[in-house]
Amino acid sequence: MSGPESAPPSGPESAPPSGPAPAVGSLPVPAPEPGLAPGGGRIRAWAELLRVSALFSVPGDALAGAAAVGLRPGRGTAYAVGASLCLYEAGMALNDWADREEDAVDRPHRPLPSGRIAPAAALGAAGLLTAAGLALASRAGRPALTAAAALAGTVWAYDLRLKHTPAAPAAMATARALDLVLGATATGPAPGRTAATVPVRRPPGPVTPAPVARRGAATRTGLRVAAPAGALAVHTYAVTAVSRHEAQGGSTLAPLGALAATSALGAVTALRALRKPGGAAALVPLLPAALYVGTTAVPLLHAALNPSPALTRRAVGGGIRAMIPLQAALAARAGATGTGIGVLGLAPLARALAEKVSAT
Fold it and tell me: Sorting pLDDT into bands at 50, 70 and 90, what band is 158?
């Protein structure tokens, strides 16, 4: 998925370079983003194009979806994770292909405007990764393929049409919510009693069978997935709104709004954990909830106080990495403590790689 990710995560959190940017003719050339060294080999160029440091924010979507329906991750969940990674990277490649002319002015060091990767190669990679994502989702069943197709359509619509419109944050929020739904549908329906286990008195005479159990399972799945999908959507909307200013900076309201939204989301997640019965196990979501707020709050506050491009990118990067503790909190809150801990373990890996390759 692109977006806060393309407007998806930010680069390393080193201090912005000092001194004026060099100029060519009358046009200033923007300095490279922190953590990016111009040039490098072909592998480095593709790592920058695909923003590999942001990949760690993806598996938690499907795993939180599996937890939401009360099931252990299985083969279908693995297919969903693979599909999500492919579609996310498709969005990254397509994002740079669509923005290649804009990046030639604002980010000439990016792989396409710098000539390290051909535009046709980036577009081809986007198409192949999309096809691979849909193929993997199809292995998990028709409902998962339907969710993946909706996700792929949202990603392509965002990159090619919606990115520079007011609908951009909503499109990216929809993509993240659909990614969680993909994990839920690929893992299976919510467990529960079926019609066969419930005694029902029927009047004499012929009875027309109805798929009551199937409809009931679908309803349960929808209700259980709605809250975590909504939480990811709120977070993604806020980060995408900030990411729209990462090239030029200058916005104070967007970081302040994102700070308010993410702080409220973290508080709601923590309070729901405190109210949930279950003893000490019910408190497990508190740690990732606290890490979530800590990862987002400080860089967003800095960006609000000094809305420079460097600090805005740093806030976006923190917001993307913060998806990991949020996913962990959602999984743990659903009772999947082991899954939550496993997802949380991706956070230090994401931070370490972000210092090598920028996520924006």
Answer: very high
SS3 assignment, position 275: helix
Which residues are paired to 342 by β-bridges?
none
State how far the Cα of 161 lies from the Cα of 152, in Å rounded to an integer: 14
Residues 6+ apart with CB under 8 A from 232: 61, 64, 173, 176, 177, 179, 180, 323, 326, 327, 330
Distance of CA 235 to the CA centre of its chain: 9
The rounded distance, in Å, linking the Cα atoms of 232 and 135 is 25
Encode pLDDT of 202-229 as tens digits: 445 454 444 555 555 566 667 789 999 9
Backbone angles phi, psi at 212, to 5 degrees: -65, -45
If you search the block for the tokens 């009358």, which residue do you land on? 26
pTM for this model (two decimals): 0.80
The CA-to-CA distance between both ends of the chain, in Å, stands at: 12
Cα dist from 360 to 7, 23, 93, whole Å: 7, 23, 12
329 close to 63: Cβ distance less than 8 angstroms: no
> How many angstroms separate the CA atoms of 330 and 232, rounded?
9
User: CB count, 10 Å around CB of 214?
Assistant: 12
pLDDT for the residue 250: 78
Q: d(Cα 175, Cα 153) in Å, to the nearest integer? A: 9
Residue type, 107: R
Tokens 């806060």 label which residue? 4
Q: What value does the mean pLDDT of the chain take? A: 82
Q: Where would I find the H helices in the chain?
A: 42-50, 59-68, 75-98, 100-106, 119-138, 142-157, 168-187, 212-243, 253-275, 286-305, 309-321, 323-333, 337-344, 346-354
Contact 258, 296 (CB under 8 A): yes
Q: How confident is the model at residue 41 (pLDDT cuts 50, 70, 90)?
A: confident
